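Teaching assistant here, posting this on the class forum so everyone can see the example we discussed in section. The complex has two components, and the goal was to see what a joint structure prediction looks like when all of them are supplied at once.
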Amino acid sequence: MEAIEKEEFRVPRRLRGMQKSNIRQIFDAALPGSINFGLGQPDLSTPRCIREEAVRVIQKEENGYTSHAGLPELRQHIVDDYPHLGLTADDCIVTVGSNEALYCATMALCEEGDEVLVPNPAFPAYPAINRLAGAETVLYRLPKEKEFGFDAEEFEKQITDKTRVAIILSPSNPTGRSLSRDDLKEIAGILEGTGIYAISDEIYKELYFTDERPASISEYYDKTLVVGGLSKNMSMTGWRMGWLLGVPEAIKRALVVHGYNTVCTSTITQKASLAYWTDAGKHAEDHCREIWRRRKDLLMELIESELRLPAFEPEGAFYTMMDVSSLGDEMDLVNKFLENKVITVNGSGFGDEAKGFLRISYCASEENIEEGIARMKKAINDR
Amino acid sequence: MEAIEKEEFRVPRRLRGMQKSNIRQIFDAALPGSINFGLGQPDLSTPRCIREEAVRVIQKEENGYTSHAGLPELRQHIVDDYPHLGLTADDCIVTVGSNEALYCATMALCEEGDEVLVPNPAFPAYPAINRLAGAETVLYRLPKEKEFGFDAEEFEKQITDKTRVAIILSPSNPTGRSLSRDDLKEIAGILEGTGIYAISDEIYKELYFTDERPASISEYYDKTLVVGGLSKNMSMTGWRMGWLLGVPEAIKRALVVHGYNTVCTSTITQKASLAYWTDAGKHAEDHCREIWRRRKDLLMELIESELRLPAFEPEGAFYTMMDVSSLGDEMDLVNKFLENKVITVNGSGFGDEAKGFLRISYCASEENIEEGIARMKKAINDR
């Protein structure tokens, strides 16, 4: 042997084959000055009432650990927003963003041999978190021919005796679609008696453009854990404010994971977040929602009038799915847009059901939306 | 059957038998107005330079997500404090306190069937995190007859072909002891060639009362991951600022866990923490260290002169181990102290090697230390 072989790192099974996400690679390839339709975070500033309260607690208060579960007053506010569940503050955990809530819920519910139902398409963290918890992901189609709406047959046929959890996501990243009350009743009817837990990801709950706020599966199905947070509706992504609430026995176990994982989320973030449950907080949220609505209307109008491409009307969140299947390979188009300084994300990054679509996020100013559409139009015409 | 049996929650194997910690139960039983010698967090305020910078970034900057690994400038500062490792900022992850660093490191290194060497006594999170990662904890004695110092024979005899990780903790919670350079050389000599990873928990590294700052096993053994943070030395427990650095292949995998677990720690915390690596930051740290030293000297003097009990001289952290074996059952004494409004923690909560000891933390003002000792004296005399 001419050289000593470099020792290989033994990768634990839970991490084998996990790769840098396709979305991350797109961002890494973006040119300076690009207009970003790829983002999953608001570009709006965190509302003043939150920031002022954070400044006050930093200047005037001590900020040691909170209990693992988080400030009791904060947890009380959170469970009060789900009055139909009749929970106490003990049935809620404040987490490091909604991502840690998902993580702790999955670790508390699943083990090797379990299956987790995940929408196709959906936020790519679900399959990854399932892997970390030792569970298998089983996808259920949200058919593109139904504009990525819920399909009971597609859902029900994926259930096996190994199914432990069903992820329910509404409003959806990446589709911007919400589940209707009829959808939720259907889901509850299918799950009833199976022992399957629903994890309801409601991180986009307050970003809605329908007349009614999207309903929660927890209103129809009692074996539900709800995941939520303030990252999107209050433009607080970097603050790391999330929560998990629901079935007490499951929450008790998720709290063990949370305590040994992160102890608590930032105390400053927790205290400042109390300002969300005030008139000023709700006013700020309404104000942001109106901005998102205006941007959505502008974007949808320009996609139709300038690009002449089909796109699904968003009911919530800040994404639309634009059908580019008439223009050839979607990754070729993503790259063509990148060359023209526009960042978009391929739908297939969220599941093969969304192949042929791009996720267009409207986390951009109206001016940038107009300029971005112009660049896309030029890129399409120059092909 | 007269009643439908209540369905039992199926607890995943990783969580079976995990209980509320003994320490938590002591705190829950404390009376109002108690003097707290039980705490593991500084009672000093977060230094002004950190708080001022946090206020500035909240008022003047946007605070969205950072990259999963954290701010590059912050990671560069962190790796620069370990020049012997020759690492780049890519070999470091900013975490939600040092606890998440430990968690991610263990998840990235271990899987079912692995064993992790853990000091006895030590911080009780290690065995719990090992369980969550599917690994078995194997304790190695830090013998009380050596004042909880390192014992090479005790360490070496616990190594098997399943040993994947050895936890090295210096300065130690609960003992306040540090490992000498000779200890570290001995550990490195034992581990060399085994393929075992060292996880070096250095959260108390900057709280030392010896002439030299405690050395790191990473100076002697290259398969090391270092865990650290600003919680203790900069009184930032509630801010959640920690880190993990070391072997690139392992860090790469720990980053996957971290990204799907918490995404990033608070952006405000990250930006404010940059102030630690300034003259003002280092000055504040020195100032705190001097306060801890004065409190330690006072506490040790009073334990000797007032309580007349043996206690080991701390070399770092903010704990001493007080030998109460002459006074009967340690839990009886903890309860007696609780009745007299003094909180202490039984040594056996950290491992059976510390049975007969109490961990006395000096996270209390000099005035409270004096009053607390007086209450303990009275409690002992009243037995």
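For the discussion questions: Chain B has two domains: 18-46+281-382, 48-278. Residues 1-5 of chain B have pLDDT under 50 and may be disordered. Think about how each of these relates to the inputs above.
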